[in-house]
């Protein structure tokens, strides 16, 4: 018997396989800490539910006596495995006494489960798969449902979900958020279908511009799906005849009409970093090259939204952390990489 079992997942949404693993963890330990990944992300077809909603899904699926033995804690994705592992360990250490016997409960589904090997010192309990469905199949049925036909679309999968999850999915389907996510799911499906016949899955190359001035950051609100209305850095796809530098300056000018001379931008360039996490974009494998500029104490350049941007604004750096859940894909974490936004943010146990 272990003192504490750790169970890590996204639970988007909770299904019977998740509950089977959680019950195994409860049978092996006095207490369980559930680490809810993808926390503070904006709603998307891949992450439709907040971490609080997912924690409630888990709790509702358990008997009352077991609920008292389960503690949920939220962890950001970071899109950086070393930082993510350190964050998980920190959250566990804050809730488990020193010297406690800790087990990590999980199932090796595919390559995405390799994170289970990243916690030496914790006993790894590899549990066989329960059931035949996964959360991706549930989300595809859910967002692929016709108007007013959510329950019918989920019917073939209903026996592999707790009744409480099914009820929560039905309630959420009545919301405006569901309709927006359904539209985005359809757009992404069409997007991927356009290159489905390629001999190899394509790797997309993009550029982004992080422009700072007077402790402000230049951000856009996206005008089109995916991520319509979400905050993002100005950027876009690499053009066939552009260098990365040329594409970065072109996208900055097209989306913000920020016409800072090229020589000024070249002098203000502080760093170029590549962000290449395999899961950073739902559109497919996308590598972006983010150019970090700092204009220092110069006057804030005049800007105006254009091209794919619905809005453009200078945002004070000290307000960025509070906007985390509004950022498209991993753009908040790109800002965090350069500006250290999460170093002092509190955690959120439930």
TrEMBL record:
InterPro entries: Cyt_trans-like, NUDIX_hydrolase-like_dom_sf, NUDIX_hydrolase_dom, Rossmann-like_a/b/a_fold
Domain annotation Nudix hydrolase: ranges: 202-338
Xref: PROSITE patterns: NUDIX (PS51462)
Highest taxon listed in the record's lineage: Bacteria
Record's keyword terms, sorted: Nucleotidyltransferase, Transferase
Keyword Plastid on entry: no
Gene Ontology MF term list: nucleotidyltransferase activity
Name of this protein: Bifunctional nicotinamide-nucleotide adenylyltransferase/Nudix hydroxylase
Organism, as annotated: Giesbergeria sinuosa
Upper lineage: Bacteria, Pseudomonadati, Pseudomonadota, Betaproteobacteria, Burkholderiales
